[in-house]
Predict the 3D structure of the following.
Amino acid sequence: MGEVLRSIGFGGTDNGEASSATGRRRGGIDWIACGVAGLLLVSSTACARPAAAPGKSLVESASPGVAAPGSSPATSRPAPTPVAAPSAALTGASAPHKQPAYASKALEVLATLPVKGRAPKTGYSRDQFGQAWADVDRNGCDTRNDTLRRDLTAEALKPGTRGCVVLSGILKDPYTAKLINFLRGAGTSSAVQIDHVVALSDAWQKGAQRLSAAQRLAFANDPLNLLAVDGPANMQKSDGDAATWLPPSKPYRCAYVARQISVKASYALWVTRAEHDAMARILADCPGALAPTSRQPAAPEAAPPAAAAPSSPKAAAPAAPAPPSVYYANCTAVRAAGAAPIRRGQPGFSSKFDRDGDGIGCE
């Protein structure tokens, strides 16, 4: 209000001194102005909003249900429960398309992928795919250790990490067919690396720029797109596609290309002409190779009830032989057959594949 008084001529002088002579010469008009100023002061005090408490924003001080210090509790209401902002790991963190249907042939899925040229790499960085090895499935363990536990055998886990951190294990490397002893440590962990089967940079140039940030986070942490592999082989691959790099182990190339096709179909990515042709050449040697998927087989339709057969003294016909069983030596064999993850009740399932007892093996 001092600013109002000064604006109509009633503020003190700059040096704080008052002039007695000026006060003696003050006329009636001055007292009228004083009266007006007083009325302004009263009205502005009565109508103004209460000031925010020190250290609080206007939003906090005006929030309903939060009583100011010293206020009567009868007029206060319980504060609303804060709502946490949705996490990018849980909001929209899924592929834009479903994985290929169960038992889809990789060649048939390849035929559905658009064939285009590479988009510019402009704007690409690892950060475009979110935090490295985020815990997107909220199981309390990062994606790297999830993948090591899935792909290694004879693994030893660090105590106190709730079965998360892998200290050591043995990898049957799919890319080189070598057995690699993994030992966690600053100078040893790189012997086994987690490869993005479809490299992040390759994905960026073939459609991932159009995905949401949450979808790119899902892509970078999707078990379908991750394999524990030989570190030097992974470094050699870099961001190459099937036209520029293939695993040194030729028997694994069909499974490798089929997995790339399944990933690209799931995330609406395309292939270049050279990449498409390289994939087709590989699959020509294994036309029955399946596109890996975690989708379930379709439930068989119920057969209509059969009419009761007349009784006959003849012996019943022998039962049809059971279909041949499917056997997988390990999870590497399951993945090579495109059957991972494998679930309890599916052909070839074994409890040795399901270490956490959730009914899903070779996750």
In short: The chain is about 30% helix and 10% strand. Confidence is low (pLDDT under 50) at residues 1-92, 319-324. The first helix runs from residue 2 to 7.
